[in-house]
User: Which sequence fits this backbone?
């Protein structure tokens, strides 16, 4: 039956979907959805305290798979938040990542917003 959604799909569509972004505190911008994802936040955080990290160092540090790290790093790279250089060490390919100025600013805005949310919740 083409075009008719399955019962599982209909049930999923009826359930309210949780928001990936917390409601903003008055006077603060919305959370950057690109950074709010756990692995991407981990990549930016790791690069903020290291001059550069290789693909394998990030993979080990964040305890993730090649594919998962690759997808999330590419999204950050496309946004201009991180830079990527590829080279060879002997015959082995090497990918190095660095935090870009735009990524540093975005991470600072994100952390400022999170701090504002925490303060607002504690004041209640």
Assistant:
């Amino acid at each position: 039956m083409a075009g008719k959604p399955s019962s599982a799909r209909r049930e999923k569509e009826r359930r309210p979907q949780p928001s990936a972004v917390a409601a903003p505190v008055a006077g603060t911008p919305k959370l950057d959805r690109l950074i709010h994802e756990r692995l991407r936040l981990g990549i930016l955080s790791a690069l903020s305290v290291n001059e550069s990290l290789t693909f394998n160092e990030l993979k080990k540090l964040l305890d993730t798979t090649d594919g998962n790290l690759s997808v999330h790093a590419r999204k950050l790279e496309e946004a201009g938040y991180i830079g990527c250089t590829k080279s060879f060490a002997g015959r082995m390919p090497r990918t190095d990542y660095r935090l870009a100025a735009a990524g540093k600013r975005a991470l600072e805005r994100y952390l400022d917003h999170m701090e504002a949310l925490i303060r607002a919740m504690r004041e209640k």
